[in-house]
Amino acid sequence: MLVLGIESSCDETGVALYEMGSDGTGTLLGHALHSQIAMHREYGGVVPELASRDHIRRTVPLLRQALADCGRTLEQVDAIAYTQGPGLAGALLVGAAFAEGLATALGKPTVPLHHLEGHLLSPLLSASPPRFPFVALLVSGGHTQIMRVSGVGQYELLGETLDDAAGEAFDKTAKLLGLGYPGGPALARLAEGGKPGAVVFPRPMLHSGDLDFSFSGLKTAVLTYVRGKELDEQARADVCRGIQDAIVDVLVTKALAAVKKTGMQQLVVAGGVGANRELRRRLNAKAVKARIQVYYPELEFCTDNGAMIALAGALRLAAGAQAKAAGPIAIRPRWPLSELTL
Amino acid sequence: MNLLALETATDQGSVALWRDGVLLSRECPAGEQSSLTLLPLVRAMMAEAGLAMADLDGIAFGAGPGAFTGLRVACGVAQGLAVALDRPVLPVVTLEAMAYADGSPQVAVYLDARMNEVYCGAYRRVGEVLELQGAITVCPPAEAPLPAAGDWAVCGNGVPAYPALSQRLAAWPLGGQRVPTAAAVARLAAPRLARGEGLDPALAAPLYIRDKVALTVAERLAQGGKA
């Protein structure tokens, strides 16, 4: 079974082909991705209208590239999966309109998907994937959630951010330090030269006893600290280090608390912040002590991509989910993951 | 020759099928999002005509100007259909489709652009072709260009929407074409398809006209704002 996946929920356009064998083993055959980061940088953040305008320019060339990479044709595709939500309405609509048009002409069904399901399942694209059940820490610019993943379509929210996402906290504090947009990765690079403990910021909700997060206060703490100060290179690195340690500390503590609470042995870290080296270093160190296994998606699948959508579509169909007849275009910009069933 | 046309630039969407000069067309139900009903209507219309999707020779769509998301739904669906069928795409300017449907030799079109602006375009019929006079613009109703000297008809929902415009246009006859239709898009696209003027779907794009949608960081700073 060959599934085409299309992702267009925010500022990345992704198209991929995933083949599920009759024995239940799958292969990612081809994938193509275009990131709009360079375009939005000039504006200091994602401009939804510009994101939509770019998606519609990119989709056809990316589809052709993905097909050419694996030598398949559209006639061989059995179903078309695409991100139905959550995300930017205009951006979602481009992928949905294209996918439904494509499927209608091919006479094939569609699989409209929840974006976060793609992220949750993305570590299964790795050479040594985790097995169900596992705990997932989903951390990106738009999301910070801890989920129990019992199987395809079986997700339980254990905790989430009450305000800003972890990636948002990275980007917003980076902006305060004049690191541009998106400044998170630049902040993480600078932090590598910072002295641990030189600057200490509060760890919000570290001891709240639940698995929820709050990162919006960090902006104020950083702003208060840097206001009126002339920071030299080292001092800036120290501030970055302080910010990163505060965010990572909370993420690591809560993720491990979730693993302990559920009695599971596997932790999956997905989303763009999952690429953060300090987060990985700290989690890996703790995992050894706690005797658990931590899994990360390949770096190229940490950000939004079409491969995770093609994968999630294939896994859903293999698990017995019904594909939808092609035609109606309906997106879900707001869509709680808890409403998801198989 | 069989041509499908999609038009969702306004909240009154429609689809049309052109078969060697015979036209079928359907309106998306009012009050519903065109995106829900667009493709099911296409299928029903094709079935009624006894045609399979593979019988289509080209896909036309109303490219704009109009509501941004509507333009992208028509463009995205047209691209999807055309890529799957390996057929060309024909973008048609919405204002030209309205001028064509109006039928007068000279028509000034005013389509409501929301945000207290109108899209304006003036067309003159030369033989079978409509020639755009000057450029398509988007501007406040009080600044919209008036028809040049001579006999002109005016049309479009931008006229009744703004008293500032309807008062200035009171001297010209207002036609019944409020919004673009897929039928007019099909009629304009059919001869172009026959002449081989269809595009590769990768090159099909909406025509937004309103292109300044956000300020860059540099522009915000220059205006005394925040980064």
UniProtKB/TrEMBL annotation, chain A:
EC top class named in words: transferase
Per UniProt, substrate binds at 138-142, 171, 184, 276
Q: Look up the EC number in the record and give it.
A: 2.3.1.234
Q: Which InterPro entries match?
A: ATPase_NBD, Gcp-like_dom, KAE1/TsaD, TsaD
> This protein's superkingdom?
Bacteria
Compartment(s) of residence: Cytoplasm
What this protein is called in its record is: tRNA N6-adenosine threonylcarbamoyltransferase
Name the gene behind this protein. tsaD
Automatic annotation (TrEMBL), chain B:
**What sequence ranges are listed for the domain Gcp-like?**
32-143
Origin organism is: Azospira oryzae
Question: Which Pfam family, any one, appears in the UniProt record?
Answer: TsaD
Q: Which Gene3D superfamilies match?
A: 3.30.420.40
InterPro entries hit by this protein: ATPase_NBD, Gcp-like_dom, T6A_TsaB
Can you tell which superkingdom this protein's organism belongs to?
Bacteria
- PANTHER family documented for this protein: TRNA N6-ADENOSINE THREONYLCARBAMOYLTRANSFERASE, TRNA THREONYLCARBAMOYLADENOSINE BIOSYNTHESIS PROTEIN TSAB
- NCBIfam families associated with the record: T6A_YeaZ
Protein name per UniProt:
tRNA threonylcarbamoyladenosine biosynthesis protein TsaB
